[in-house]
Amino acid sequence: MAASLGSNWSRVSRSLFGGLGNNLSSLLSPSTEMTACNFFSQQHRTFIQMRTVLKVVDNSGAKKVMCIQALKGKKGARLGDTIVASVKEAMPNGKVKKGKVVYGVVVRAAMQRGRCDGSQVKFDDNAVVLVDKQGQPIGTRVFGPVPHELRKKKHVKILTLAEHIA
């Protein structure tokens, strides 16, 4: 794997720097090669803001929602924040129908968040659990991992319904 990354970096460096590619790749150590490759393929991660499409990870009947507004935040929502969303895809016989405006709690976010111990947590997708106005979940099950930061945000009911706490 490391050998293939090194050869890919040589091709990238030659195309970017012309004839300097051979000299540049010989100066880089294997750990630097991996970092440089990741630098070019990194995605930009942002807050959950207006018009962000999120996956619903409970059994309320909705599949996808689009964020209308992030509550209590100027920039947007992060892990544990509540949003107002519109249902874009729903199962035909679920509790929630397409087009309905609902509240949701962000349980997975692609933007990294620092923890007290110095580590950072981030997920591959943006996911939400639908709740009512009082903050109680609409569904009876929560699928996938849920971060333990929800305990600080007073969403203990979601943690009890979750399969796995990360």
Structure characterization notes:
- The strands form three sheets. The protein has a five-stranded mixed beta barrel. Strands 5-6 form a two-stranded antiparallel ribbon.
- The protein contains four helices and nine strands, in the order H-H-H-E-E-E-E-E-E-E-E-H-E.
- It has two domains: 2-41; 53-165, Ribosomal protein L14/L23 (Ribosomal Protein L14, Beta Barrel).
- It is globular, with a radius of gyration of 21 Å.
- By secondary structure, the chain is an alpha+beta fold.
- The protein starts with a helix and ends with a strand.
Low-confidence parts: 1-41
> How many structural units, i.e. domains?
2
Q: SS-based structural class?
A: alpha+beta
Strand content bin = 25-35%
What is the C-level CATH assignment of the largest domain? Mainly Beta
Biggest beta-sheet profile:
5 strands, mixed, barrel
- Which second-level CATH architecture of the largest domain applies? Beta Barrel
